[in-house]
Amino acid sequence: MSSLLHPVGHLPASVYWFRRGLVLAVLALLFFLVLRLVPGGDDPKNSAAAGPQPSETPSAKSSDKPTPKPTEKTTTKPTAKASSTPPPKDVECSSSNVRVDVQPAVRRIASGATLNFLVKLDAVSGECKAAVDADSLTVTVTSGTDQIWTSAHCGKAIQRATLVVAKGKQGVSTVAWNGFRSGPGCLPGQPVAKPGTYVVKAEFSGRESAAQAFQIS
User: Fold this and answer.
1) Mean pLDDT score, 107-113
2) Over 80: is that where the pLDDT of 8 sits?
3) DSSP, res 52
4) Structural domain boundaries in the chain
5) Which of 33-42, 62-71, 158-167 has the highest mean pLDDT?
6) Can you tell me the distance from the alpha carbon of 195 to that of 193, in angstroms, rounded to the nearest whole number?
7) For residues 184-206, b (16+ Cβ closer than 10 Å) or e, as one string?
């Protein structure tokens, strides 16, 4: 014990004390380094900092969710509306909504032969019903200023009918002429029409057609 407090040697005592202090300092430094390197030292803050930290793992929620099935789209087919052709409008044909035309079936006949005239009604606007009879339709055959025959004398030549007239749809009535002259009452025994050029015209509800010529040979 006396040797520790009073070092013995040929060197001064301060040298021995310096050496002892240096050794102690080295030992203290080693002890401090050991505490720093070894986990679980006496510093709770350092130990907590050096402790294992929980690592973030990728969430498995996205993989756990079931994959939604594609929904089938239901397409509704448009229901076809039943189309029905509307009945003709109950409008009476008159001189304001129809056009009248007359054509001889042939342009040349023999004297005394029967000739048919085709009376055609065309709609000017809209749709209408033409009541054809001897009162509404008149067909007349002339030669110059001479009236040869007219349905006003022979009303039976006009066939009674109701024709539906519309744009693109003609109403046609056929009127037969026996090739003879006519008089009031359509009495028989009238003279036959002589060879020559004749003209036929029609009138429906006050509207006249253009004149059409034909020949009798």
Assistant:
1) 95
2) no
3) P
4) 11-50, 98-216
5) 158-167
6) 7
7) eebeeebeebeeeebebbbbbbe
Residue 216: is it exposed, middle or buried by C-beta count within 10 angstroms (0-12/13-18/19+)? buried
Query: How many Cβ atoms from other residues are within 10 Å of residue 86's Cβ?
Result: 7
Instruction: Choose the weakest-confidence range: 57-61, 126-130, 157-161, 170-174.
Output: 57-61
Instruction: Identify which has the larger pLDDT, 105 or 11.
Output: 105
The torsion of the CA quartet 55, 57, 59, 63, rounded to 10 degrees, works out to: -170
Q: Is 126 left (phi over 0), alpha (psi -120 to 50) or beta?
A: left
Cα–Cα dist 176/181, whole Å: 13
Q: Which residues pair with 100 in a beta bridge?
A: 121
Residue 75: per-residue pLDDT = 54
User: Given 2.40.50.140, 3.40.50.2300, 1.10.10.10, 2.60.40.10, which CATH number is that of 98-216?
Assistant: 2.60.40.10
